[in-house]
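Problem statement: downstream parser choked on a complex file, so we are re-checking the raw output for the zinc ion run. The parser issue turned out to be on our end (a line-ending mismatch), but while we're here, posting the original submission so the record is complete.
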Amino acid sequence: MIVDIHTHTFPGKIAARTVDKLQSMSHTHPFTDGTVQALRESMAAAGIDRSVVVPVATNARQVPRVNDASIALNESGGGVLSFGCMHPDYDGWKSELARLAENGIKGIKLHPVYQEVNFDDPRFLRILDRCAEVGLLVLTHAGKDVGFPGAADNVSPARIASAMRQTDGVALICAHMGSWRQWDDAERLLPETGVYLDTSFSLGAMTPNGDGYYPTPESLRLLSDEQFVRIVRAFGAERVLFGTDSPWGEQADSLQKLRALSLTDPELTAVLGGNAQKLLGL
Ligand SMILES: [Zn+2]
């Protein structure tokens, strides 16, 4: 089974507008139009059995509405599975997390950069502990964000390690191989914390949207094959989950890049789906 643990879709009405806004912020190329239908077509073309959609709450107000949509999306089936969302300033965090678990949601997505709160802030720590309590996985954006150049140290490897020291038992997935463009620190500080990694938007190079923002091939470069494999082995392949960040990564191409690495067959089987299957209880 092949599972993509990190994808994005948007409701039909706002998909085009949202993808357009995000591509102009990140200056990178989207590979689908952001709709669920397009994700399903991409999965069929790539041979991916399940995709996990990870919605981000950019304000506290929208939390219950986004979560209602996630619960509804799960009822639609077709290999697409949605996590819920949470915002650090949402007052009803405690009961809302329980509601998600009761409705069969497997995890939540956090985005400390968009949410402008540090990952080791008490408002996040209480969410992490509550997720452990009600059995929700947590997938967090980690490291720098391509849409916020230069800024934003909200979810650095040091802050992730600090949050893990102060919480108890949460199953935490750190996106983008532990911390986007803070990979040396991720490699140094995170293996001993017990966190999982997803592989999204980390290997090779970004695909520019053609607006000329990135001046050189060097400015598009992400992890080298060598460091990618070294990180997998530092954490152990059983703690690494295949993800694409679709529409910001292309599913078939991302799969092909992973298969071309020097990982062993058992390592690859675990990364591409075995680990996610266990974590998600599929
Ligand atoms: Zn993402």
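For whoever reads this later: Residues 6, 8, 245 surround zinc ion (CB under 6 Å).
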